[in-house]
Design a protein that fits this description.
There is one protein chain. By secondary structure, the protein is an all-alpha fold. The chain has a domain of 55 residues.
């Protein structure tokens, strides 16, 4: 009788060990999920920083005309009346011959 109880308890212990190390919700799965969460947190921090920069740019464009003018000049090549647009094209340096 005690032999069967001991055998049953050992079998139960083996099943619990299997689940702990290899089954669903195992320690390996827990470690992988924690690493995935850390990656998501890092990505979230980068996206939050990007959102703050974009929000600041939107606010700057909403308030100041100078920012709009700078953006129009740099991205669209716009000039004001009375200004002269000069484009400097540099000659590429000749490649050195071996």
């Amino acid at each position: 009788m005690t032999r069967w109880i001991i055998l049953g308890l050992l079998l139960l212990l083996g099943l619990l060990q299997y689940r702990l190390w290899l089954g669903e919700g195992s320690l390996a799965e827990l470690h992988a999920l924690r690493a995935q969460i850390a990656g998501y947190r890092e990505e979230l921090a980068q996206l939050e920083a990007r959102n703050r920069a974009l929000a600041a740019e939107v606010e700057d464009l909403r308030i100041g005309l100078e920012a709009i003018e700078d953006r129009a000049r740099s991205e669209l090549g716009m000039i004001q009346r009375g200004e002269v647009f000069l484009q400097v094209i540099e000659k590429p340096e000749p490649e050195a011959k071996p």
